[in-house]
Design goal:
The structure holds two protein chains of two kinds. Chain A contains nine helices and no strands. Chain A has helices at residues 2-30, 39-58, 68-89, 107-135, 145-172, 174-190, 202-209, 212-225, 235-259. Chain A is an all-alpha fold. Chain A has one domain. By secondary structure, chain B is α/β, with parallel strands linked by helices. A five-stranded mixed beta sheet of chain B has the order 5-6-3-7-8, sandwiched between helices. In chain B, strands 2-1-4 form a three-stranded antiparallel beta sheet, covered by helices on one side. Classes of the chains: A mainly alpha, B alpha/beta.
């Protein structure tokens, strides 16, 4: 009983700390005097304008009659997940090290609050894109909501796990901090943002599906378009990647937390 | 109670390790006031970081069965772009202290006036220290961790701090780390001396004091 109750107490404390960090992060990032939280919607809104422009210029002409706007939104929202999570968690502990003097605050709490904020922001921008484009009739509602959500949640897990990994690696190695951004540029074109596996020649399809993000975005598109397109993905493959990244990431983070030296 | 059991801390250095604290034992009971004497570089600050939980020991264990403050008047945890009030709310949330009760106290005690609503990065170092001290007093702890002499602000403010900490909270435990024997003598009933990473225990503050004087040049 003692063990159970102290575990519960730690959980309560941890949630309290993460919540406090979240609020601090929100005010710091979005500010009180600016347009604040609405910054979260500005980037997707600018993206919307871009899509509209392409739509006007190219008269909606993606392969096989696939709706351009919906294709772009699903691709963009998936990229946003892993790219934002990774970038905003890279080197995110060092500037906050002095918080560790409050002994309830642990390295994992600082990172957890970051990840939650990023994921929430991405999910909100995805929802807002769907609502705005859906209400104006530019895109149709998704065919299979549950499959879409499952795909998105799996991608969110992948993004969170990647963020733990990136955070630990960038804190442990300066070299990794420098090469992380080039890695994201390299990953962008192969992440499924602008292609579908089905369009590729057969021999490249297997290769494309080895990229975990491709499986995520294909799953999301399967939920969105239904029978209109043929999607190739393995949810299990994505789960294995996420699980692997989570476990190795947490181990690396623990190594970092053990040796951390706040000033 | 706070217990340090065989605590060792070593850091990676150019070409090997440097052991800063070597198998240290310490016990602080409820209400007890202990001074830790040591000259610069003896490992005092490392000990403070370990007790506050900011760092982990390389080996050995630290157990805390009472709440321990962050190092008193420590201003490093402030987020510069946030106002003093926002920083206050953050600290209260972490320690589950009442924000409504803390605000009037900090307003009154820190004497920061309108500045409390300004970003902390616009504060002078004195103002920062006043906010930090007031915050330390707004959250209740069983044990206060005091790193170096509490000399904050002008003389009048100094007196106020003294009253708040050593008079109103005289029932609390305190761990005072200092290289100033007079300060420790004035506030502690027991003292230990850190010399080159080893902790020496004494029955009275006077014995610790004379040992410290002998080893001051080491």
């Amino acid at each position: 009983m003692q063990g159970a109750s102290s575990f519960w107490e730690s959980l309560v404390i941890q949630w309290r700390v993460v919540r406090a960090l979240l609020m601090r992060e929100i005010i710091t990032r979005y500010g009180r005097h600016n347009i604040g939280f609405f910054w979260l919607f500005v980037e997707p809104t600018i993206f919307c304008c871009g899509v509209m422009e392409i739509r006007v210029l190219f008269h909606e002409s993606v392969k096989g009659g696939l709706p351009m706007a919906a294709f772009a939104i699903t691709g963009y929202s998936t990229v946003l997940l892993w790219r934002n999570c990774g970038n905003h968690c890279s080197g995110s502990i060092t500037p906050n090290l002095s918080l560790l003097y409050h002994h309830n605050v642990r390295v994992i709490d600082v990172l957890a609050s970051r990840i939650i904020l990023e994921l929430a922001g991405c999910a909100m921008s995805f929802m807002m894109l769907m609502i705005v484009f859906g209400a104006t009739g530019i895109i149709k509602p998704p065919e299979d909501w549950i499959l879409l959500m499952a795909g998105y949640l799996l991608m969110a897990w992948f993004a969170g796990a990647l963020a733990i990994w990136v955070c630990a690696m960038t804190e442990l190695s300066e070299v990794f901090e420098r090469i992380w951004h080039p890695i994201t540029y390299f990953m962008l074109p192969i992440s499924g943002l602008a292609f579908m596996v089905d369009w590729l020649p057969q021999k490249y399809q297997k290769l494309a599906m080895a990229v975990p993000m491709v499986n995520g975005v294909e799953m999301i598109r399967d939920g969105y378009f239904g029978k209109v397109v043929r999607c190739h993905y393995s949810a299990l493959y994505l789960v294995c990647w996420s699980l692997g990244l989570t476990l190795t990431g947490l181990t690396l983070l623990k190594i970092f937390a053990r040796t951390v030296e706040p000033q | 109670m706070i217990t340090l059991d065989q605590v060792t801390k070593s850091y990676e250095m150019h070409g090997g390790h440097r052991t800063v604290l070597d198998r240290i034992n310490l016990r602080v009971n409820k209400g007890q006031k202990i001074g830790i004497l040591g000259r610069n570089g003896s490992g005092k600050s490392t000990m403070v970081r370990l007790i506050s939980g900011a760092e982990y020991p390389t080996s050995g264990s630290i157990t805390r069965s009472m709440s321990v403050s962050w190092p008193l008047a420590f201003a490093g945890g402030f987020q510069g772009s946030l106002s003093g009030l926002d920083n206050l709310r953050f600290v209260c949330r972490i320690y589950d202290a009442s924000i409504e009760r803390a605000i009037p106290f900090v307003e009154e005690f820190s004497e920061l006036g309108r500045y409390l609503r300004e970003p902390v990065k616009n504060y002078s170092s004195g103002m920062r220290a006043r906010l930090a001290f007031a915050l330390s007093m707004a959250v209740e702890f069983d044990c206060f961790l005091i790193d170096e002499v509490v000399a904050v602000g002008d003389h009048r403010f100094h007196v106020k701090c003294h009253e708040e900490l050593f008079v109103k909270r005289r029932d609390r435990a305190m761990i005072i780390v200092s290289h100033n024997p007079a300060f420790i003598k004035a506030h502690c009933e027991a003292a230990v001396v850190l010399v080159a990473g080893t902790l020496h225990h004494f029955k009275t503050v006077d014995e610790a004091f004379s040992f410290y004087s002998e080893h001051e040049t080491e």
